[in-house]
């Protein structure tokens, strides 16, 4: 194990969601992230995958995790699929759909991200499954939700970033080199929706605890992203102006942006008048702090162009590391712009357990990003590395539905299910 990684250790105790059974009919990112969170917190998650294909992200490489298999899984797949068991069932076949209906009858939570209405033909829609299991919490994640004029459209993160207005406030401003709308460098619309779905599921569990009722949760990428326009939307709703691209500058707070030092870029984030005055003293520009135009944030915002030019001149001669160290001593918020490789080696990130080493059933090690919430009594656990396709089909069908070996073999022979090949280097049957 690499130095600094948190080795997967036996769980200190049951997770807070232990005992809950989750049927995961999702793929790609938003919904798998939600079910991974539930798994991290102790729930049993059964990931239902198409035989022979599996989650689309298994093929979204390179890079791939080289484990000696003919079809190694892509790195993308590992970001949202730990603490799950993979069950390969073709529910396009009547026998496969019947298996899933039986599994849903004993589940607490079902998460799916098929197009609106897409599961009804298999009897796997919310109305059908809630009739059979009124305590079921059924969460649908789509691009635009179950209602409205766009309900039947497919939704993708890139499209939602554009439609939601996020790209209109992301990127260099007009008149600067490289100006134009830009998507965020991470699939934030997917990620936000996965988080909102998890929050909604936990709320529904609390409702069920009080009333015994399950329910249908309708989560949409567009809704989630619009809800997180936050201050930019409120600036428009209150002030009437249409927010515009400001590059790395803040629409409300000044100075709050990147500046070029002599050898690198740094970030300055002054959230108060006192921090601004401290920055001016540090830079030897007390005249800026004393200028009535810049005495308050409202004034600094109004005359930001003039102020930022002066600050840029004062910052330019400094070495980035020296200035950041001086800012820390002076109580001025600031920081570097790390590369992904740098942040994954940062001592604070390591100390907080944000890198976890796990091992797949064949012994192949894989390092994953940790769960960020530090629960003092019931912490997240890292029990199962992201599984191989169909790795757990046989065991789950036997445990959950009581199927015998002959029944399982008949389903396999009919193409209803798939059983994983033995791990590379072993002779056992999966």
UniProtKB/TrEMBL annotation:
InterPro entries: CoA-transferase_III_domain, CoA-Trfase_fam_III, CoA-Trfase_III_dom3_sf, CoA-Trfase_III_dom_1_sf
Keywords annotated in UniProt: Transferase
Keyword Transferase: yes
Entry keyword Signal: no
GO molecular function: CoA-transferase activity
PANTHER family the UniProt entry points to: SUCCINATE--HYDROXYMETHYLGLUTARATE COA-TRANSFERASE
Name of the molecule in the record: CoA transferase
Organism field: Teichococcus oryzae
């Amino acid at each position: 194990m690499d130095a600094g990684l948190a080795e997967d250790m036996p769980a200190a105790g049951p997770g807070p969601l232990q005992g809950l059974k989750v049927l995961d009919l999702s793929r790609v990112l938003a919904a798998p992230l939600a079910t991974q969170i539930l798994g991290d917190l102790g729930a049993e998650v059964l990931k239902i995958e198409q035989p022979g294909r599996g989650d689309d992200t298994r093929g979204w490489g390179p890079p791939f995790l080289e484990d000696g298999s003919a079809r190694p899984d892509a790195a993308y797949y590992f970001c949202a699929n730990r603490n799950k068991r993979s069950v390969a069932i073709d529910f396009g076949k009547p026998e496969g759909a019947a298996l899933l209906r039986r599994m849903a009858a004993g589940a607490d939570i079902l998460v799916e991200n098929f197009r609106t209405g897409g599961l009804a033909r298999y009897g796997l829609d919310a109305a059908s499954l809630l009739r059979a299991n009124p305590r079921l919490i059924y969460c649908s994640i789509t691009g635009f939700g179950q209602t409205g004029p766009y309900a039947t459209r497919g939704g993708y993160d890139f499209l939602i970033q554009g439609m939601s207005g996020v790209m209109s406030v992301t990127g260099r401003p007009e008149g600067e080199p490289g100006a134009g709308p830009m998507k965020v460098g991470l699939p934030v619309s997917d990620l936000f929706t996965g988080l909102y779905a998890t929050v909604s599921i936990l709320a529904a569990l609390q409702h069920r605890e009080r009333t015994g009722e399950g329910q249908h949760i309708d989560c949409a990428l567009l809704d989630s992203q619009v809800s997180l326009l936050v201050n930019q939307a409120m600036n428009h709703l209150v002030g009437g102006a249409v927010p515009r691209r400001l590059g790395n500058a803040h629409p409300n707070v000044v100075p709050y942006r990147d500046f070029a030092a002599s050898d690198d870029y740094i970030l300055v984030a002054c959230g108060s008048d006192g921090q601004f005055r401290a920055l001016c003293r540090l830079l030897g520009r007390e005249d800026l702090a004393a200028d009535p135009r810049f005495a308050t944030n409202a004034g600094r915002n109004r005359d930001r162009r003039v102020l930022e030019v002066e600050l840029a001149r004062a910052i330019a001669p400094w070495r980035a590391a020296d200035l950041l160290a001086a800012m820390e001593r002076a109580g001025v918020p600031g920081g570097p712009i790390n590369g992904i490789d740098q942040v994954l080696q940062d001592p604070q990130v390591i100390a907080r357990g944000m890198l976890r080493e796990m091992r797949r059933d064949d012994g192949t090690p894989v390092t994953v990003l940790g769960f960020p919430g530090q629960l003092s009594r019931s912490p997240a656990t890292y029990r199962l590395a992201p599984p191989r396709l169909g790795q757990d089909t046989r065991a789950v069908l036997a445990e959950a539905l009581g199927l015998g070996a002959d029944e399982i073999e008949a389903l396999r022979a009919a193409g209803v299910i798939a059983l994983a090949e033995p791990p590379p280097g072993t002779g056992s049957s999966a």
